[in-house]
Amino acid sequence: MLSLASTPGNPVPPGGTLVSVQTDDGVRLRAVHWRPTTRLAKGTVCLLQGRAEFIEKYYETITDLRRRGFAVVAFDWRGQGESQRQVTDAHCGHVARFDDYRHDLKAIEEAILRPLMPHPHMGLAHSMGGAVALTGAMDGWLPFARLVTVAPMLSIRMIRFPAASFFLARLLHALGLGRSYIPFGKPTSMATKPFAGNRLSGDPARYERNAQAARAVGTGAVGDPSVAWIVGAFRAMEKLADPRKAASIRIPILVIGAGADPVCDTAITERFVGRLSSGFLLVLPDARHEILSERDAIRDDFWAAFDAFVPGTVVTPSRVEHADTGRSAAAAMLP
After folding, report:
1. CB-neighbour burial class of residue 274 (10 A; exposed 0-12, middle 13-18, buried 19+)
2. What residue ranges define each of the domains in the chain, with the CATH number in brackets?
3. pLDDT in tens, 13-52
4. pLDDT at 328
5. What is the spatial distance between Cα 87 and Cα 64, in angstroms, rounded to a whole number?
């Protein structure tokens, strides 16, 4: 039975429609969509989470988007949140191949975005979600008119020796250990670790809010990744590093970099954006990896850039209401 967790400092945004969506390769995803809280709709923003994240972490962002006049679609990638696992250990963040994330976004597009949500459709992607979206933009299957990506995973700074680590991961994968944790991997969610010295946010209140949300979702907040995930991540980053492929991207993209990001290398992000034909870059100097969970001043800068980049097409309320009719019987109205 699907649900959305609520904690005292992080209540579920009201009015959402919770659904189970099945991909074409048979994986069940948890998804939810909301109408805007304004009278008119400017379009739809689809949220693409980072690795080990879950819908509950984005309640504040969802509320901010709805107040701006956007309908919102949020979902959990396979292997995290309340979406289906493909390994026995529900704490292990596993995907067999990075290309499988394309199945997830395609399912969301076909079941929710295309039939139900007002145009234009735009993406807001974080970290791993940014890597998935950017590879989709390279290959021409990304279903968005515009993309905003926050601290995209174009590199992993926590891995000190990437070439050696990639070789080891491929070796372990070849030995049949793709579904196992990376060496020394643990089931503990990064979101539940102490605030002091954390890599994610400089805002103690929002960090604690996310930690409480992670505890509330239990196994939904996964721990370290599998060997197969690491192999897929390296291959995706290798593809994104190709300057010719980056130059082939045609949709407008706004990249928000975190100047104090200990997870992804912002210098590599800057080089990547320089290769885009329609790319725009803003680096927020004091921000850590999770910009959307940062201090108010940093978030204000993010939203100013977002508002300038993401114009919407105002549609009548009747079009929005019509978009929500005919939903599946599996849908459940949230409070």
Report:
1. exposed
2. 17-333 (3.40.50.1820)
3. 999 999 999 999 999 999 999 999 999 999 999 999 999 9
4. 33
5. 35
Measured CA to CA, the distance from residue 124 to residue 47 in angstroms comes to 5
Task: Work out the number of other CB atoms within 10 angstroms of the CB of residue 244.
Answer: 8
d(CA 249, CA 277): 7
Query: Could you tell me where the beta strands, DSSP code E, fall in the chain?
Result: 17-22, 28-34, 43-48, 70-75, 121-126, 146-150, 253-258, 279-284, 332-333
Residues facing 146 on adjacent strands: 122
The pairing of strands 17-22 and 28-34 is: antiparallel
Distance of CA 271 to the CA centre of its chain: 22
- Terminal-to-terminal C-alpha distance of the chain: 16
- With CA atoms as reference, report the closest residue to 128 among 232, 68, 75, 50: 50
Tell me which amino acid residue 110 is: E
pLDDT digits (tens, 9 = 90+) for 88-131: 999 999 999 999 999 999 999 999 999 999 999 999 999 999 99
How far apart are the C-alpha atoms of 303 and 132, rounded to whole Å? 22
